[in-house]
Structure prediction request, 385 residues.
Amino acid sequence: MNIEIIKSLNFIIERDSKDTTYKFALLRSVIETVQYFDHLKKEEDNMVIFPLGLLIEKWILYYYPLIENKIPQKHGENKSGSSKTLAFKPYLEKLVSFYKDKGGISVFYSDYKNGNLPEEIRFIFLELVKKLKSTITNMPMKYLGKSYYQKEYSIFNFNKDSNTIRKSDIGKIKIDREFLIKNFGTFSFSKELYVVFIYFGSFLNGTESIIYKWAEFSAKMDESKSISVEKVLEKLLTSPENERNVELSKKIYRRLLNKNGKIVCVWSKKPITEKTLNIDHVLPFSIWQNNDLWNLLPAHKEINQNKKDKIPSPELIKNRSELISYYWRIVFSVCKDRFEKEIYTNLIGLNKNLSRNQLFTRGIISLTDKVKYLIDVRGYEPWNI
Prediction:
């Protein structure tokens, strides 16, 4: 198997647009289409082809409960007065509203599946479907993978082979899955990616992941049947260290600031004052969940806000290695035992025969290896200044 395909998926999941949930919906819907509708697949050269209507149906079913429960799906969507919203949301809201007192999503799906959508909602549904087609093909399908391949439609291609649906025909059409399959064109992607989705798609979706299977098994073992899979998942995902604890580091660097009159940002070398002092997690806490002293360094407030949860590039670590080592030495002089234990155990390995200079040199090498892994293998976004 071409490992480059796996690598590209990591990049896409972490780096492609984070403004909306479109990329997640597209990947999930393609994976489920491959696994449940393989009988509708066509092959041409090194490509596989599926009906686009299957993705449209799945997007309706994914987003229906999210819209119904007002769960934000676009960055800034819930801000007061914000005009930011999903392109198809107004149409889906009307569908949700129509079925609100009629049984909700289950009744809607039954009506749709059996081709019995009520006349008063058929036009809204058709407009929703058309908007979803436009959204899927002009947004995530167009841009997914651009961060990795540097070109549009690099993962999925939309084949412009759909039919025109006239308003005058709406009353005569049986609107169901077959209608979507036959009238909304096709999309295609490589056979290599198809193989990945066939064999690993359930792991990517999470339905066959180890943690989900663990939760499913635990719920089945509960004789009272009062524990749900979701409840077990919540407990399995509980972390013993789920808060950013930076107080000791802040105290050390504030004391250094008061003693020297100034300190500089580890990334920008910009002077830091009492008001602009932030403690940055070199390896972001959201990714590494690590409050070790070696991972906490002083940064200017503005720089830290710009870095957020990005990974400092190997080049940046190299360029700031002397300053990082300098701050490590300061912390080492204050908390020698804790610093040594943490850096040996959680960064460089249990080789306790290193001199102080060797410790810091080895620490920089190991830190560089960590950021390379997060960027090159896990696909997280590198950050430079």
Q: What stands out?
A: The first strand starts at residue 42 and ends at 44. The two ends are 37 Å apart (CA to CA).
